[in-house]
Amino acid sequence: MLYYFKSIYSACVIISVILMPLSFGEMYTSLLNVKQAINVERQLIDHLETYIEHESERLEDIKRFYAKVSDLHSEVYSGPSAAMANPLVAFTLIKRLQSEWLNLIYSDEAQENTQAFRSGYKEVEKEGSLPKLEDLQGAAKGLMRLQDVYALQVGGLVRGHFQRITDGNPIDIYSPTVSVPLSGDDCFLVGKVAYELEDYYHSVQWLEESVRLFRGAGGEWSPENEGTLEDALDHLAFSHFKTGNISYALSLSQELLNHDPMNGRVLKNVQKYERLLVDSPPLLSTDTGLKRPNTTYLRTRNTYERLCRTQGTQPTHYENPRLFCDYFNNDSPGLLLQPIRREVLSLQPYVVLYHSFITDSEAESIRDLAQTGLRRSVVASGEEQVTAEYRISKSAWLKETAHPIIGRLDQRITLLTGLNVQPPYAEYLQVVNYGIGGHYEPHFDHATSASSPLFKLNTGNRVATFMIYLSSVDAGGSTAFIHANFSVPVLENAALFWWNLHRNGQGDGDTLHAGCPVLVGDKWVANKWIHEYGQEFQRRCSPNPEE
C-alpha cells in the first residue's frame, strides 16, 4: 500500500484483555465515567454547604462582637469621662483587650472549619472517583479534536455553540438543548494544554479567547481560577512568537508589563522582539493567519474529516443503482416469520446495515452488564497492547455466560450471517463506550502483521466484523469508510456487517474505517469479531461474486 497506516486494530486476545488491571485517571475516555462524576461533585457540594454554614456561624459571632464593641465606643466611651471611673467599665475594657481580642484573632475555629472541609474533599479523593490531571488534559484535547475534525470556531464553542464558518458566516451545525459558556479560565486551561504540547496553532486560538474574557471581567481574579489575565497574556505572547507573529507578541508583552512592570523575563522578551523587528521588519503582505500543521502519521486526514463532517450524507455514493434495501431472512427458518430490514450500503467493500437488530431493552441490558468491566481501550503495538491518543474509549468483554441475552445475540448474528460466532471461532462481545470527543482514527479490524496477538487464538484472522449501535447520539460519531468514501451515521439498535478479508484470506484495504469523534451524545457500540477458522463454506452474505 502507498499509504502508511498505524497497524491499529481493535486489540485483544481474549485472555490478556480479561486479565487487564483496573485503570484509573481515565475518566475522560468514557462518558459513563463523566456522568458518574456528577454524583461526585454533589458530595463536594454537600461538604461545601457544611463549610459555609460553619463559617457563617463564625462570622455571625464576629459580627456580634463587632456590634458590641462599636456600641460601647459610640454610647459609653464617647460620653462623660465619668464612665471610665466605673470599675466595671474599666474591667471589661481591660479584659477585652487582654483576652477577648486575642481569642478572636487567634481562634482556631476558621482553621478547624477549613480542615473539616479539606478532610471531606480527601475522603472523596480516596475513593478514586475524582478526575486527575490526565483527565483535564484529555478533556481539553477532546475539545481541540472536535474543533479540528468538525471545523468548529473556538469563539462559538466559548459561547456554547457548535458553529462552522460557511461563506464567511457562522452556521450552527448543531444546537444543543443544554449548554454552558466557557470562562476565561476554562479557555486558559485548554490553551495551556496545547501550549505545553508546543501546539501553538491551538494555543493561540484558545488563549485569545481567554485574554478577551479576562479583559472583559476587568482582570478580576476568582478563587476557583487557576489562570489570570497576566498568565494568559504571557502564554499568548510566546505562542504568537512561535507562530511568527512577532509584532503581536511584542504588543502583548508590553501589555503584560503594564500589569507586572518588574517582570525581568518579560522585559528581556520585549527587547528580543524589538531587535527581531528591527533586523527583519515584517512585510505588509505577510500572511500572519494561523495554518493548521500537517500530519505525518495520518495520511488520510482530509478524507477522514470530510466524511465525519458529512455525517452520512453522501448522495453520490448512495445513487448507485446496485445498492438496495430489502427484508432479509438468509433462508434461515428462524427469520422466516420475522425478517430483518437490510440496507446494502456498499458493494466494495461489502457493507450492510441491519435496522432494528436489537431492542431498546436488550441494548440497555448490554450497557448495564458492561459497566463494571469497562477499561481503557487498547490497540496493538507489535505483540503488545497499549493505550493510544487515536483511540479514546473504554471497553469491556462479555462472555455468553454473563447473561442469556449475550447468547441470544450470538444466535441472531449466526442466523443473519451463517457464521460460527462461538469462541474460539469468534471473540467475546466487546462493548465500547466513547469519551469526550471519543473516536478511533482510521484502522483495520483485521491483523496486518504476522506478530499480531490475534493469531494466538489459533483461529486465523478476523474475517468479518459485526458492530451493533447500542445508543443514539445527538451529533457526530459516524463510522467512516475511508477508501470506500462513505460514512454511516449512528443509528440506534442497528448493526453494521462487513467482510475484512478477501476470499483468498488477504486483508481488504477498502475496509479501512474510523469511528468519528462524538460531538454531542453518549455513544455505545458492541463489536463481534469473527475469525477465519470454523467459517468454511459459510460466506453467503455477499451478493458480489468477485468479493
TrEMBL record:
It is an enzyme of class 1 (oxidoreductase). It is found in: Endoplasmic reticulum lumen. It comes from the Eukaryota. Residues 425-532 form the Fe2OG dioxygenase domain. PROSITE patterns: FE2OG_OXY (PS51471). It catalyses: L-prolyl-[collagen] + 2-oxoglutarate + O2 = trans-4-hydroxy-L-prolyl-[collagen] + succinate + CO2. Its cofactor is Fe(2+); L-ascorbate. Pfam families: 2OG-FeII_Oxy_3, P4Ha_N, TPR_P4H. Belongs to the P4HA family. Catalyzes the post-translational formation of 4-hydroxyproline in -Xaa-Pro-Gly- sequences in collagens and other proteins. This is Prolyl 4-hydroxylase subunit alpha-3. It comes from Salmo trutta (Brown trout).
